[in-house]
Design brief:
The chain is mainly beta. It has strands at about 5, 10-15, 20-25, 35-40, 45-55, 60, 70-75, 80-85, 95-100, 105, 110-115. The strands form 2 sheets. Strands 2, 4, 5, 6, 9, 10 and 11 form a 7-stranded mixed beta sheet that branches.
Length: about 120
């Protein structure tokens, strides 16, 4: 079964950095695929961070995320990445990536990021 898979989460201290990765288990990112990153903090709704198109590398961000995140993709490794620097406790959440292909969206299981103060 083809499914996105996130990795790179963990428990860190405030001010630390993490880079999350998203790859496709059993498949690859290709062509017009769009990769999106979301997060869901405890007790809050899931929110979109931003998206990147696979071939073109065009990026779009939620307004509240624009200055805080820089999504990119490693074309040769076939992975999308979400670097996170200067993490704060309010960054604790489950982070998800999705693969959208032909209007169908596939969700990864998520990776937990916990930031202690």
């Amino acid at each position: 079964q083809v499914q996105p898979a996130e990795s790179g989460g963990g428990v860190v201290q405030a001010g630390d950095s993490l880079t999350l990765s998203c790859s496709v288990s059993g498949g690859t990112f290709v062509g017009d695929d769009m990769v999106a990153w979301y997060r869901q903090a405890p007790g809050k709704e899931r929110e979109v961070i931003g998206t990147i198109t696979w071939d073109a590398g065009s990026r779009h961000y939620a307004d509240s995320m624009r200055s805080r995140f820089n999504i990119y993709r490693n074309y040769h490794e076939n992975r999308a990445r979400l670097p996170m620097n200067g993490l704060r406790p309010d960054g604790s959440a489950i982070y998800y990536c999705t693969q959208q292909r032909c209007s169908v969206v596939y969700w990864g299981p998520g990776t937990q990021v916990s930031v202690s103060s």
